[in-house]
Amino acid sequence: MTAAFAQIQVRSGEVNVNVISVFENYLRLRNVTDKKFYFRIRASPVRVAKIIPFVVAFLIGGFLVEPPEQAGLMSDAGPLFEWVLCSFLLISLAAPQLNAARHPVPLDEKTNAATCSQCHADKTKGEVVHPAMAGGCLVCHEVRVSGKITWVKLTTGTSLSLCLTCHPDKNAEQIKGKVHPPAIHGCVVCHDPHTSNYKYLLVKPASGATKAENLCLSCHDTGVAVPKDGSRHPALDVGCEACHSIHKSGDPMQRVFAYHLSKDAPELCWTCHNSNDPALAKAHQNQPFGKADCLQCHDPHQSARPFLAQEFLHPPYAAMSCGMCHMPPKEGKVVLTAQDVNSLCATCHADKPKEIQTAKVPHPGAQGECTVCHNPHAGTSPAFLEPNPVAVCLTCHSDLADQGKKAYVHKPAFGQSCAICHEPHGGANPNLLRLSDVNSLCLECHGPNARPQPVNGTDQVAIFDGKVVLPKGFFRQVPILPLNGGRGHPIANHPISGPTKLNGKTVQMNCLSCHQPHASSNPGLLVNDQEPSMAFCNMCHTQGMLALPKKD
Question: How far apart are CA 380 and CA 389, in angstroms?
């Protein structure tokens, strides 16, 4: 039990609880197999303070896949004691905190800013001083006197809520799109609330090569450990803000917002580089590159290869054998060695035209040129999809783009690649799904027998008989359902497939009976964006129990 709550700390009179770590340790302690609720919390953009009550709800059994007595890990009295202790602790943490610190000396309850400055003069000096300091300390702080004891607290419950009283535009709960994670939990992670020697009141500069120097490296490790034969972008030494605007938020499907860029490539790159530079032209074998997307071929931070080359390279490009595909340019335009793009690609990939042309369910997007979806040189994914394996599909499937802005998204749909579930060149099943049976498709990742196979010589794994390749770390946050004989989700013995009587009719149940596959405004990805509650269950269980076929 002690290990589960080792991350609770008290500092400056403020309870600082890493609830996510607490809950993760608790799951390890209990050996809980269904972590879907934990991962829903971990991906949530809301504040930790709002998560606590939901953790409590989980602990008291509202979201459990199986009751604690079925775990079989402790004595009969153990689970009950642990349950009560966990619930009491987290409920107490969910209560409003006074957020007060005892002042070292007694103060008069009418203390003003002038009195404060007698001891805290350093709070008003520095290269950059918070404008709120001009209004005095009591703009943000309160003095409370109880007998001979003086307490000093913020005028709001948390430092974040205090900052938002003047900076409401930084409220992550009101911003649609990707928000820099530290800005979700608290401004003082990066900013000093009083004074600083660095602009924007940063606690450290956003430049430097080590964690001790660079504020950004407190969380990121970009450029810190470059392989011996690799390369590092010199712009890192200028500072992260040379390319990034940290509070820039918007549609996460647009790279400029997903990575908080001041502007997108190639315009961003031309801030320092010159497309007319003869040395740069020679490095690109004098092929036209001024309007190319630099980030398709180059990693903007560091690489294990020379010239900041991306992780995945098209073999002719990796071998610098440009002549396999290119003739010398003519009038500033690319000239290919074949009549057209598709004919050129087919010289090596002859199987793809046949796959596209003979598909039972054709993909209209695959009927055009290969380079509409694939970069011919390099990329961040094995298929060189541009700008990335998700946005490439949303170029045509714009009706799905808004779903990516919802609070809870299915990682394959908006975090990894649409091609995990769908055949990109055409297939045999409706909606281009890789398997005809919906449940088999979902259980390829979420089933108890899911076994991603390592790909030799890489840090990747394969599913669907090797047709889909994914980063090994992808499955670290994939919830595995504790199914037995097709039952066990969302509670023990609940079926996930088969015929079911609903309102007097027999219907076939599958994963899509309860879940929508792409995104939702609420946890669980439940149909019609509904909340995970008894109201949702009552859609089927109107009489408290739904007639289900008996288990064989």
Answer: 9
Domain that holds residue 186: 100-156+158-203
| In 270-356, beta strands by DSSP E | 302-303, 312-313, 326-330, 333-336
Query: Looking at the chain, how many residues does it have?
Result: 552
CB 512 within 8 A of CB 438: yes
Instruction: Evaluate whether residue 547 is within a structural domain.
Output: no
- pTM, entire model: 0.70
Shared-domain flag, residues 126 and 104 = yes
For 246: left if phi > 0, alpha if psi spans -120 to 50, otherwise beta; the answer is alpha
Any domain includes 52: yes
- Judgement on whether residues 81 and 127 belong to the same structural domain of the protein: no
> Quick one: 31 and 70 in the same domain?
yes
Sign of the alpha-carbon torsion through 435, 436, 439, 440: negative
Give the Cα separation of 544 and 66 in Å (integer): 19
Helix axis angle, 19-30 relative to 77-94, nearest 10°?
Answer: 170
The answer on 82 and 25 residing in a single domain is: yes
| Per-residue pLDDT tens listing for the chain (552 residues) | 333 333 333 333 333 334 444 444 444 444 433 333 333 333 333 334 444 444 444 444 443 333 333 333 333 445 555 555 655 555 544 443 446 789 999 988 888 888 898 899 899 888 999 999 999 999 999 999 988 899 999 999 899 999 999 999 999 988 888 899 889 888 999 999 999 999 999 999 999 888 899 999 999 998 888 988 999 999 998 999 999 999 999 888 789 998 999 999 999 999 999 989 999 999 998 999 988 899 999 999 999 999 999 999 999 999 999 999 999 999 889 999 999 999 999 999 999 999 999 999 999 999 999 999 999 999 988 899 988 899 999 989 988 988 988 889 999 999 899 999 999 999 999 999 999 999 999 999 999 999 999 998 888 999 999 999 999 889 988 999 999 999 999 999 899 998 877 767 788 899 999 999 999 999 999 999 999 998 898 888 776 555 454 454
Query: Same domain, yes or no, for 123 and 147?
Result: yes
Q: Please count the other Cβ atoms lying within 10 Å of the Cβ belonging to residue 505.
A: 7
| 503 assigned to some structural domain | no
Side chain identity at residue 305, one-letter code: R
Specify whether 32 is located in the same domain as 51: yes
Closest CA to 268 of 238, 288, 305: 238
Task: At 438, give phi and psi (nearest 5°).
Answer: -60, -45
Widest distance between CA atoms in the chain: 90
Same domain flag for 27 and 52: yes
Transcribe 168-217 into DSSP letters: GGG-GGG--S---HHHHH-GGGTB-SSEESSGGGBSS-S--SSTTT-SGG
- Burial 53-86, CB ≥16 within 10 A → b, else e: ebbbebbeeebbbbebeeeeeeeeeebeebbeeb
Q: Are strands 519-520 and 408-409 parallel, antiparallel or unpaired?
A: antiparallel
